[in-house]
C-alpha cells in the first residue's frame, strides 16, 4: 500500500466557470468500526432519509439498519453504506457496531474518498476482515483535503464479534468512507481566512466541511481555532491565540449575529486590538461562507467581552490584492508596456537587446523589471536610469517573479532544489540572493515558480521521472527575509503542464506549451477539479490579471484574450507579456 504525500489545499470557487466542477472525493464511512452491509435477508429497518446540507443537490440517502442473520461482509458493507448520517450523528451506522465501539467511534476524524468500488475480504485471524479500495482523496478532522497520488490504495482492518447471536463490528478505525458523489452532496468547500504576517492581507485556506447549515458556523470556527493548514504554517498568522477553544461545541446564529463563546482565560488575556483582529478574521470567513451572518459577538462565560470603541476597530482584511492592468512584454528584444490597447516604450530604460532577453517580469510598483538571459542561466534586474545588472545565476532558471514586497524570486531547474530570492527594492542595502535549499524539490525539474499576490505562497510546477506536480507552498519569512518554503500542498492532477500563473487568491492557470498543436489552459482552484478554457493552437506563453476573464494566451501570432468560450486576438507585435508578480 502506498501512502499519499500530497496535501490539498483547499475554498469555494468564486467564478462561475469554476463552480461547474467539484473535486472528486470519497464518501463512504471509513474510520470507525466495522462497516455494515446492505441487508440481504430478514426484515429491513429503514431510517429517515438524510438530505445534503448545503450544496443545493436534490439527493436523499436511505440508511438501512442491520437485519437479523446478516453475514460479517454484509455488516461491513452496510456500515459503510450508512456513512451518510451526518445530521443525526450517524445513529444508523452505530447500530452496526458493538456497544463499546458505538460510543467511542469518531466518524469526523477522517473521511476517505474512494475510486470505483471497495472490496471486503477475510483477514488472517478469525473474525478479522480487510476493506480495500483505491483512494481519491482524504479529508482530516479540520477539513484539509489531500488528493491522493495515482495508484494509492488503503486497507482498513476490522474485527467482528457476535452480540446476542448477531455479527457486529468490534474494532475499526475512526472516520468514514464515501463515494465521490456522496462526498459532493455532503461536503462543501469553505475558505478560512488567515492574515499575512503584516496583518494586512487575507489568505484563503480552503477546507471541506460537512453538515447541515446550522452546524456550518460551528465547524468553521472549530477549524479556524485549530490554525492554518500544514502547508501554510509559518507563512500566515492567526489573530486567535494558541490554546483557545470553543466553550461549547456550538456557534448559534440569531438574527444574523453569530454568538462565539470561547474559553474565558485565553480570550480575556488578549488585548482589545487582538480581539478586533480576531473579529475581522472570523467575520470575513463567516460572511463569505454563510449569507445568514451579518455580525458576531465573542463571549466569555456567556458574557460579551470588551471590544473597545469605534477608534479601536481594525481595517478589514484586503482580499485579491490589486494587480495593475498594464503588462510588461518584449518587442524586438526590448522591454515595453502594454495596457490592453497601446504599446509604449519605457522611459529611461536602457537597451537590453544585446542580452537576448526572455520571460520578463514587472514589480507591483511598475518601476522595477527583470528578465532571463544567458540561455536561462541568468536573471537580470533593471529600472529606469539604471544599468541592467545580474541578480541571480543558476541552471535552467525559472522565469523571474516579483513578490508584492519587491523581492524577486527564481528557482533552478537542475534538480538541486535551489530557490533564490533577491531584494530588488530601490536602495536595498543587500542585493545578493538569499539561497534556499528546498528538500522537497531535490531531484525535481522546476519549470515555474510564481509568488502569490499576497506574498505568502508560491505556485511551483515541477517534474521528476515524467510525473508533473502542481504545488502551492508557503513562504516562511523573518521580517522580509525569506527563510524557508514549506512542505507543499499538491493540487488535483492536471496532466503535465510546465507554465503557470496566479489568477486570483485561490486559483491558478496552467498549460503545456506547444508549437502548433491545440493547447488547453486549465484553471486549478484550491478546492475544485481542473476547469478547461477553450483550446488554442500553438499557445506558448500565459499571463493573467485579475480573474479568469483576464487570462491571456500568447502564440506566434500574438496575444489573445479569453472572451467567453473563444479567444480573440489582441496585439501581434509582442511576446511573453506578463502582469505584475
TrEMBL record:
Domain of life: Bacteria
Cited SMART domains: Germane (SM00909)
Domain GerMN, first and last residues per copy: 217-309
Pfam families found in the cross-reference section: Germane, Gmad1, LpqB_N
Protein name (database record): GerMN domain-containing protein
Organism this protein belongs to: Arthrobacter silviterrae
UniProt lineage: Bacteria, Bacillati, Actinomycetota, Actinomycetes, Micrococcales
Amino acid at each position: 500500500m502506498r501512502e499519499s504525500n500530497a496535501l490539498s489545499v483547499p475554498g469555494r470557487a468564486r467564478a462561475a466557470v469554476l463552480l461547474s466542477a467539484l473535486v472528486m472525493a470519497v464518501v463512504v464511512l471509513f474510520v470507525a468500526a466495522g462497516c455494515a452491509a446492505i441487508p440481504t435477508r430478514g426484515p429491513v429497518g429503514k431510517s429517515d432519509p438524510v438530505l445534503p446540507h448545503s450544496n443545493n443537490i436534490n439527493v436523499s440517502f436511505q440508511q438501512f439498519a442491520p437485519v437479523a442473520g446478516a453475514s460479517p461482509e454484509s455488516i461491513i458493507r452496510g456500515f459503510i453504506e450508512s456513512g451518510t448520517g451526518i445530521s443525526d450523528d450517524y445513529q444508523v451506522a452505530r447500530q452496526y457496531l458493538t456497544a463499546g465501539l458505538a460510543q467511542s467511534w469518531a466518524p469526523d476524524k477522517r473521511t476517505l474518498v474512494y475510486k470505483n468500488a471497495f472490496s471486503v475480504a477475510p483477514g488472517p485471524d478469525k473474525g478479522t476482515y480487510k476493506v480495500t479500495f483505491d483512494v481519491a482523496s482524504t479529508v482530516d478532522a479540520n477539513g484539509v483535503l489531500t488528493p491522493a497520488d495515482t495508484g494509492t490504495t488503503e486497507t482498513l482492518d476490522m474485527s467482528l464479534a457476535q452480540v446476542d447471536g448477531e455479527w457486529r463490528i468490534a474494532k475499526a478505525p475512526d472516520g468514514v468512507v464515501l463515494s465521490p458523489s456522496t462526498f459532493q452532496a455532503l461536503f462543501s468547500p469553505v475558505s478560512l481566512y488567515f492574515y499575512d504576517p503584516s496583518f494586512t492581507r487575507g489568505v484563503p485556506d480552503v477546507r471541506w466541511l460537512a453538515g447541515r447549515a446550522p452546524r456550518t458556523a460551528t465547524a468553521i470556527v472549530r477549524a479556524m481555532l485549530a490554525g492554518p493548514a500544514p502547508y501554510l504554517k509559518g507563512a500566515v498568522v492567526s489573530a486567535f491565540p494558541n490554546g483557545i477553544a470553543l466553550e461549547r461545541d456550538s456557534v448559534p446564529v440569531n438574527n444574523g449575529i453569530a454568538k462565539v463563546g470561547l474559553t474565558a482565560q485565553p480570550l480575556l488575556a488578549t488585548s482589545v486590538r487582538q480581539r478586533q483582529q480576531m473579529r475581522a478574521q472570523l467575520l470575513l470567513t463567516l460572511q463569505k461562507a454563510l449569507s445568514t451572518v451579518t455580525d458576531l459577538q465573542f463571549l466569555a462565560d456567556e458574557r460579551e467581552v470588551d471590544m473597545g470603541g469605534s477608534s479601536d476597530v481594525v481595517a478589514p482584511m484586503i482580499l485579491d490584492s490589486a494587480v495593475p492592468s498594464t503588462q510588461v512584454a518584449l518587442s524586438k528584444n526590448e522591454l515595453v508596456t502594454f495596457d490592453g490597447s497601446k504599446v509604449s516604450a519605457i522611459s529611461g530604460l536602457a537597451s537590453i537587446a544585446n542580452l537576448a532577453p526572455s520571460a520578463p517580469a514587472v514589480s507591483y510598483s511598475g518601476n522595477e523589471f527583470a528578465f532571463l538571459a544567458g540561455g536561462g542561466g541568468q536573471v537580470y534586474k533593471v529600472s529606469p536610469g539604471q544599468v541592467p545588472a545580474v541578480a541571480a545565476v543558476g541552471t535552467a532558471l525559472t522565469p523571474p517573479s516579483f513578490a508584492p514586497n519587491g523581492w524577486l524570486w527564481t528557482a533552478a531547474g537542475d534538480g538541486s532544489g535551489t530557490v533564490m530570492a533577491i531584494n530588488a527594492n530601490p536602495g536595498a542595502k543587500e542585493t545578493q540572493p538569499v539561497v534556499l535549499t528546498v528538500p522537497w524539490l531535490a531531484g525535481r525539474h522546476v519549470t515555474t515558480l510564481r509568488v502569490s499576490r499576497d506574498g505568502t505562497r508560491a505556485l511551483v510546477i515541477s517534474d521528476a521521472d515524467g510525473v508533473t506536480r502542481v504545488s502551492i507552498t508557503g513562504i516562511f519569512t523573518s521580517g522580509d527575509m525569506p527563510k524557508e518554503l514549506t512542505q507543499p500542498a499538491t493540487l488535483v492532477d492536471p496532466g503535465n503542464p510546465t507554465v503557470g500563473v496566479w489568477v486570483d487568491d485561490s486559483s491558478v492557470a496552467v498549460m503545456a506549451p506547444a508549437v502548433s498543436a491545440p493547447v488547453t489552459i486549465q484553471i486549478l482552484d484550491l478546492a475544485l477539479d481542473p476547469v478547461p478554457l477553450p483550446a488554442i493552437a500553438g499557445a506558448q506563453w500565459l499571463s493573467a490579471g485579475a480573474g479568469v476573464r483576464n487570462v491571456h494566451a500568447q502564440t506566434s501570432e500574438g496575444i489573445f484574450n479569453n472572451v467567453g468560450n473563444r479567444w480573440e486576438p489582441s496585439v501581434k507585435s509582442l511576446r511573453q507579456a506578463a502582469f505584475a508578480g
